[in-house]
Write a structure and sequence with these properties.
This protein is of the alpha/beta class. The chain has 3 domains: 75 residues, Orthogonal Bundle (Arc Repressor Mutant, subunit A); 130 residues, ATPase, nucleotide binding domain (Nucleotidyltransferase, domain 5, 2-Layer Sandwich); 173 residues, ATPase, nucleotide binding domain (Nucleotidyltransferase, domain 5). It is 42% helix and 19% strand. It contains 14 helices and 15 strands. The protein has a 5-stranded mixed beta sheet with strand order 6-5-4-7-10, sandwiched between helices. It has a 5-stranded mixed beta sheet with strand order 13-12-11-14-15, sandwiched between helices. The protein has a 3-stranded antiparallel beta sheet with strand order 1-3-2. Helix 7 packs across helix 13, helix 9 packs across helix 10 and helix 11 packs across helix 12. The two termini are 18 Å apart. Bound molecules: zinc ion. The site of zinc ion has 5 residues, from loops.
C-alpha cells in the first residue's frame, strides 16, 4: 500500500491529527481546545501548530474571549496551504480540477478525449493539460499535494492499472497511475469513476443528508457508485458498482452479453442515439459517432422532446422507466434512501427524465423499503468525478490513520 508514505507530505501522525481536528471545526479552534479534542499535550499542540503556521497550512484568525481567561488565538485551515489536482477520464471527455485545502474548486478545464490515438498519447495530453491548469491556477508547484485520477473500470488499484474498460478503445492493461506519477512528479491515486463521484458527494454533504445512497453515473457508460453509513463501498478489488447488466427491459434489445434489455445497453447515450437514427427520429450525416457527435445528437433529440415531439419524448420516457427499474432493484438490495444523478451526459437528459424517475420509483410495487427514495441531481455538476478524485488526495494527506503510526512514531 502507498498510504504510509503519502501521508508524510504533511508530516507525522500528531501533526495530521491536529490538522484534521482544525479542518473539521469550520469556526477555528484555540490551542487549548485542540489539546482537549485531541488528547495531546499543550506542548505538542503548541509545537505542531507553530510548524503548521510556519508552513502556511494553518493561519491565525483573530481572538476569542472564553470565560474569564485571557483571549485565545483562534487557528484555522489556510485554504491556500495546499492543493489537490483531480482528473476524470471518461471515454468522451477528460475533466481537470484544482481543489484548495478546503475542498473548493479553484480552477477547472475540460477537453474531448482524443480518439484514434494510443493510450500513451492520451496520457501525454493529460500531462500537458494538468501542467497548464496548475499554471493557469497560479498555484505554487510546491503546494500541490498530489493528483487523483478517476477512470472507468475495471481497474487494478494495487498496480494502478486501467485493465480493460469496454468503452475506452485500445486501453488494455495501461499503467496510468505510474505513467502520470513519472511525468508530473506528483503522488498519484487512482479510483474507479463512480466511486470518485460518490466520494465527492460524501465530501460536500452533511452526514445525515447523504448516508446511504447510490450515485447514478451517466457518462459514456452507465454505472453506480455506492455509499453505506457515509462511506464509499469499493468491494474486494475496488471495482464495485458495475450495474450495466441489470436487466431492466426483458423485451429489450440484445446486449453484448447475449441477454435482452440490460441497463447499460438500454440507456447509454450512444445506444440511445443509434436507435434514434435507426428509427428515423434524427439524422446523422456522418456514419462515425465520436463523443462530440453523440453529445450533439442526444442534445438534438432532447430538444425535440422538449418542444413536444411525441416520438422523441417517448425515448426519454422509456429511459426513465429503465432507470427506475434499476434504482428500485438496488435501493431494495441495500436499503438506500437516496439516488444522486450525475456524470458527463446527465444534464442533457435530466429535465426529461428526473421527475418521472422519482414518480416511478416511489410508486413502484417492487419497492419494498419502508421509506421513500429521494431523487436528486449532483450539485457539483460535470466536475463531480474529478472533484472526487482530488478529494481522495486531500483525504489521503489530511486524514489520520493508525497505519501511519507504524512508520512515523
Ligand atoms: Zn448485458
Amino acid at each position: 500500500m502507498r498510504r504510509g508514505t503519502n501521508v508524510h507530505a504533511l508530516g507525522g501522525f500528531n501533526q495530521i491529527v491536529i490538522l484534521d481536528t482544525i479542518r473539521r471545526n469550520r469556526d477555528g479552534l484555540s490551542r487549548v481546545e485542540i489539546a482537549e479534542l485531541t488528547g495531546l499535550s499543550a506542548q505538542t499542540v503548541s509545537n505542531v501548530s507553530r510548524r503548521l503556521l510556519d508552513e502556511g497550512i494553518i493561519r491565525e484568525a483573530g481572538q476569542r474571549i472564553l470565560g474569564v481567561g485571557k483571549p485565545r488565538i483562534i487557528l484555522e485551515l489556510d485554504p491556500s496551504g495546499g492543493y489537490a489536482i483531480g482528473v476524470h477520464l471518461d471515454p468522451a471527455v477528460i475533466t481537470y480540477v484544482v481543489l484548495d485545502l478546503d475542498g473548493r474548486v479553484v480552477a477547472h478545464s475540460a477537453t474531448r478525449t482524443p480518439s484514434g490515438v494510443t493510450p500513451e498519447q492520451v496520457i501525454a495530453a493529460m500531462h500537458d493539460s494538468i501542467e497548464a491548469l496548475i499554471d493557469a491556477a497560479g498555484v505554487e508547484r510546491g503546494r500541490v499535494l498530489g493528483l487523483g485520477i478517476a477512470a472507468p473500470g475495471p481497474l487494478d488499484l494495487e498496480q494502478g492499472v486501467v485493465l480493460d474498460p469496454p468503452l475506452l478503445e485500445g486501453w488494455h492493461g495501461v499503467a496510468l497511475r505510474d505513467a502520470l506519477a513519472e511525468s508530473t512528479g506528483l503522488m498519484v491515486l487512482l479510483e474507479k469513476d463512480v466511486t470518485a463521484a460518490t466520494v465527492a458527494e460524501l465530501w460536500t454533504s452533511s452526514a445525515q443528508e447523504r448516508d446511504d445512497f447510490m450515485f447514478f453515473y451517466y457518462g459514456t457508460g452507465v454505472g453506480l457508485g455506492l455509499a453505506i453509513a457515509h462511506e464509499a463501498v469499493r468491494g474486494a478489488t475496488n471495482n464495485a458498482g458495475d450495474a450495466g447488466h441489470i436487466i431492466v427491459d426483458p423485451e429489450g434489445p440484445v446486449c453484448s452479453c447475449g441477454r435482452r434489455g440490460c441497463l447499460g445497453d438500454a440507456i447509454m447515450p450512444r445506444a440511445v442515439v443509434d436507435r434514434a437514427i435507426a428509427s428515423g427520429l434524427i439524422t446523422a450525416p456522418d456514419e462515425r459517432l465520436g463523443g462530440d457527435r453523440v453529445d450533439a445528437l442526444l442534445g438534438e433529440l432532447a430538444a425535440d422532446a422538449e418542444s413536444g415531439d411525441h416520438a422523441a419524448s417517448a425515448v426519454f420516457e422509456a429511459m426513465a422507466d429503465r432507470i427506475a427499474v434499476a434504482v428500485v432493484t438496488v435501493a431494495n438490495l441495500l436499503d438506500l434512501d437516496t439516488v444522486v444523478f450525475g456524470g458527463p451526459y446527465w444534464n442533457r437528459v435530466s429535465p426529461l427524465v428526473l421527475g418521472r424517475v422519482s414518480e416511478l420509483v416511489n410508486s413502484s410495487s417492487s419497492l419494498v423499503t419502508t421509506h421513500p427514495i429521494a431523487v436528486a441531481v449532483s450539485r457539483i455538476g460535470d466536475d463531480v468525478a474529478a472533484v472526487g478524485a482530488a478529494c481522495l488526495v486531500l483525504d489521503d494527506v489530511l486524514s489520520p490513520r493508525p497505519s501511519a503510526l507504524l512508520i512515523s512514531g
